[in-house]
Amino acid sequence: MKRHQKLFKTKCSQENYQKLLALNNPILLNFLGEYVELCNPRSVFVRSDSLQDAQYIRNKAKELGEEKQLNIDGHTVHFDGPTDQARDKQNTKFLLSKGENLGSDINSIVREKGLSEIQALLKGIMSGKEMFVLFLCLGPVNSDFSIYAVQLTDSAYVAHSEDILYRSAYDVFKKKGTETEFFKFVHSAGELENSVSKNIDKRRVYIDLSENTVWTVNSQYAGNTVGLKKLALRLAINKASKENWLAEHMFVMGVYPVKSAKGGIPTYSGLFNRVNGPNNRKTYFTGAFPSACGKTSTCMVEEESIVGDDIAYLRKKDGKVFAVNVERGIFGIIRDVNPQNDPLIWQTLTSPGEVIFSNVLVRDGIPYWLNDGKVHPKNSTIFPHPNARYTIRLKTLKNCDPNLENPEGVEVKGIIYGGRDAEAWPSVFESFDWNHGVITIAASLESETTAATLGKQGVRKLNPMANLDFLSIPIGKYIQNHLQFAKDLAHPPTIFGVNYFLRDENGNYLSAIEDKRVWLKWMELRVHKEIEAIESPIGFLPRYEDLKRLFKQVLGKDYSERDYQKEFTLRIDANLAKVERIIEIYKTKVPDAPKILFEILEEQKRRLNAARRVNKPY
User: Model-level pTM greater than 0.85?
Assistant: First the structure.
């Protein structure tokens, strides 16, 4: 600490120097001193919890050209470089010592080599720039769920994004001193050319699980640089594995019941009591979907409430499961956000308030994106990127749940998994039990690659729990953790599968965009055992009579028996092919896959074969 005091004095204003001294945490200050010395910034700004400090960063983002003002008050736009607009999976690597193994799907580099490379890249990289020091919290502040973090960055855009997305925690660090365990993130955009990272060939994202540290260099794209996003998820998954809780790529939402009616299924009455719903009931679900599979559109259904759209921590307490949203904001894909599909997000994106757009088309101070419902400027040679994004605070949304900042979290009654599946899975179904759901739905989740990651698009791949890209432990261990998680729970959350992409023989989608509103109501009723279901080889399917009534009550439209048969007649051959495909992947590529995984998948295979023999359509 003493070695760095002189350095801090030369790099910090008196005010910022005092902010550091007030922390009384030698571990933190040594970490900071090490990277101030290595990166050699011109100056250091320390972000406290004050509104003035937040405004300083917002102003700097525009002053440095990292963001530009748009026509609506509070709205800005940021542009990443043309080859820096998605997560860089190839150059995201874990530092591993000899003998360490996280699995064949996890990219790694020998620790000594990785440390040497990243230290060389960081040496003097902030010369002439300002370093922003941010103190943040994953989850509500002062909660059993809380994980604290420090981010160092030379990008005001990254600092601004962190401020929107995460809770500020300078005062917590100040109060707790050396008691604060924290994740560490170091980022530099590197040399800039036309305000974007120049040396993309030297883009690196290196992760050290032993020290809970992540370094990112020569990138601006938020998925690589906003440390508390998917980089922190990797650290948290490793931590959760050791402590028997779950860090998941999941939304958290509240689903209201349909209003009870005499002599039949409950009926829907629109936006009733948004806090509790009829009979003082609101049921919380988490949900994991790979990118571009309907995750945001599910948790943003207008008549329900949203706690979070992306990352959740799940813990057990008193025999129940509780979850919190790790974030307080959304870094969302903006493609297809329009007044019809996402009216609440659209309202925020077109109203005064703090919004960062990224990689959209801008003309005359107006942002445009793919399928936004607007008339785009004519003769434009520039187009929005398919992975263009928006960054907003959740509290700007009218359906933001009042429990967003509840340190106790919300009780989870159901977990939803959804992917892209044109052939096999029905639109919605329920697992037989926890283990069956974990294996045949969560661990068997398949989807297609999208514009959110670099590489070829449209390739079908297995994506267990929609979390494969962010695993920091072997896949088999990850699945075993899920199985173990519910062993001491008398009534674990009910697991559901959804598939919005089932097609008919002509390639037409069988489920309309708004139909997910019905599937949510059906799942809510099933959680509370208020309606029956049909037992099939893959789980429980809805009854036609229930869906017919729900479609009328929720959407005000008729649902024909012919439509039901197309969606819910079990496609036995396709489901058999899927099971065989999943078994083969785990046999050949996951050496630590738990034995029970194969047992449960073989049981599913036997049920499907039996149904085929008797030609039972379900």
Answer: yes
